[in-house]
Amino acid sequence: MLEVTELVVEQANDVIRDAKNIVEGDMYLDRVKEFVPAGDNPVYPDVLLKLRTVQQCLSQFGAGRVDREKHLVKILHEARTILGALQCYMDGAEYPSKDEVKKTLDEGSPASSWFFRSDDDNEYFDFERLDRRKLDEYLSDNVVLPEKHEK
Asked: What is the gyration radius of the CA atoms in the chain, in angstroms?
């Protein structure tokens, strides 16, 4: 088997170190150790195996970030809807309609899931749903999304 050069060892260790600084707590990445530059250099298959593991961990991390960003955008949209409904309520609308809440928003429309359709065929903010929620938990940005490790 052919040993890698000193440059390859140095670059591989840089990649491993950088990945560990970006991704914390990944059990697969935690198992990847830097090469010790003493004695014989590692062979190419060993270096490729470690770097492939790092690549897969970074890919998973990137996918998780996209999922988390989507989740946070959804939570922010709902929080703005709730805030708009509360503003309407404070302005005297006992049951703010979807249109009234929309007028309070800077952009976009309110989150439909927070409204119910009444007998008069209009949509009104669901304060009962709001009362049932623990908003500090529901709107938390500390939600941990389920991990999807497929190695």
From this structure: 26
pLDDT of residue 122: 93
Cα gap 14→28, rounded to integer Å: 17
From CA 145, how far away is CA 141, in angstroms rounded?
11
The residue among 75, 71, 130, 77 whose CA lies nearest residue 105 is 77
Per DSSP, helices labelled H in 2-151 are 6-22, 27-31, 44-90, 98-104, 127-132, 135-138
Structure tokens at 87: 């503003």
Would you say the C-alpha torsion 83, 86, 90, 94 has a positive or negative sign? Answer: positive
Residue 90: its pLDDT value, please? 95
Global pTM reads: 0.59
Which pLDDT score, from 0 to 100, does residue 39 have? Answer: 86
SS3 at position 150: coil
121's CB contacts (< 8 A; 6+ apart) are none
Measured in whole angstroms, the distance separating CA 51 from the mean position of its chain's CA atoms is 25
The CA distance from 85 to 64, in Å, is 32
pLDDT of residue 146: 46
* Residues in the chain where the model's pLDDT stays below 50: 145-151
